[in-house]
């Protein structure tokens, strides 16, 4: 099917989102479209959770402030020189690109896992928004150790928020982008205001006072692990591993006019994953001085991390609104991506309905606070599972000629299950997951080795497989 002369027909067939065709030239967008989306998505709901969770992990000032500078830089470079580069060269969604390499049957399993994990992440953001909406109703807030819903009020609020977010996401990329562009300045302003107010509440009047909030670090809270400098660097680099080295954001950057749009991710990393994480940590530092938090600590329990009350304590109703919007701007593109994953499995179902399905799963996940309260561990696991599949795309794109393998082999050989891909992923995942469990290694530390091994093994196994089939 030629994309240039029957663009309108393609748009009608795939609902305007070009799930199984390269994005045509006339639909490309400038870097400004991505700036708002990334600033909005990453100065968002997860930030209200992650900042405080760093404090529960006992980080020192140097580990946090310098570690985040380095880790976020590595993330931006990954987006710019890997994800955006490949996206602009091919202009395909992650799912269609993988189908060409892996075969329909193998990629179906990947798409299902990817879509569900995206839904769980979006569910955590619905949880974050619910902690703000529940304030006027005197709703009991979830604790760090909570797994199940804690009452009917919680359930009703989560369902309503999930329904609204799902409808916005189902309208497609344009609506998601517009929502992010509109909301992100409000959220960024709220994070700045929260940080400034919290500094005043903590009595900070100099940089040394600010530094001493974390100081030399502390023992982690009950049930949490201790974070060092390298924990912060590696975790912040791979917090979005599925999106950059895992290539999920091929689905977003395929709309970019050039690979330089990849630099717009810096807005998300340094406004969101730097300023906002630190501002959110300051909110929690204020709460830790309260009698309620001290009572939890004296009982050997970690004080709850509920973004709504934390922001409300700093800037009142504006804080409540900001937390609700922050949950939306993360959940919206996440549900959109999950919808694309499900679309690849059931291509005859419209974009609207697969996104509604994704939103429903996300809403159900949002009912369970554990996804939000264990966010550091969940994000590490999520990246570790999915990132190696991105290595298959990266290594094939850059090294297929040197390795002497056929690009998009499953499509060209008409095979449904590429054993080279599955074996490369299974060996790298199994080996490094065993190391993580056996030697108690933080999962983010083995994400890069697993990614590299998967890419190399894919080239080796592909060479052998393709030689047999010749």
TrEMBL record:
TM ranges: 53-77, 116-139, 151-170, 182-207, 227-246, 267-290, 310-331, 352-372, 378-396, 417-435, 441-461
Gene3D superfamilies membership: Hydantoin permease
Source organism superkingdom: Bacteria
InterPro entries xref list: CodB (IPR030191)
Keyword terms, alphabetized: Membrane, Transmembrane, Transmembrane helix
Ion transport in keyword set: no
Gene Ontology MF, one: cytosine transmembrane transporter activity
Any single Gene Ontology cellular-component annotation: plasma membrane
PANTHER family according to UniProt: CYTOSINE PERMEASE, CYTOSINE TRANSPORTER CODB
Protein name per the record: Membrane protein
Organism expressing this protein natively: Croceitalea dokdonensis DOKDO 023
